Amino acid sequence: MSGAVNDRRRINGPARSVEPIYTATVLDSVAKGRSDGRGLDHMRPIYAKAGPISDAQTTASASGSAFYEQGSIRISCAVYGPRSARKPNARRAHFVCDFQYAPFACSKRSPTQSTDEHETSLWLSNTVGPAIRLEMYPKSSIDAYVTVIESDGKMPTLAATINCISLALADAGIE
Q: What is the mean pLDDT of each run of 10 residues along the chain (175 residues)?
């Protein structure tokens, strides 16, 4: 049995590989830094304030709130809870996050919550929820309402949103 061994269960790759061709513009943009002028080792300037909504004289003030600004991203978050839940026999608290863009934050905006906003709400509930000690608050609910005032892309906005929710939870005294 001489020659190459063929395996019918696997997909054979190409016989030879070719190095990718990098144009001068790709290499120049990596050398210069990011599109907003920052270097690769610099981060956006951050401004964070805890409690701007809970300090206001409103009828139903939030337990904790935060305003977070990072570059051209601006996010406001209000946390209500722990408050009594619909399920009185629950051994752990229930965390729900409501994520919405302000009408002027995006180029296209519908009056109802879009599919993207709903998916982001679920993703944030599943991401931030396990970081909260929900077993310390039985028979209760913790709700976070996030409003994106200005956005600079989805991924940086998600990272800034997690920071804003964390700051609002800390302001509410929720562990």
A: 61 69 60 71 88 65 91 93 81 93 76 82 95 92 95 91 96 93
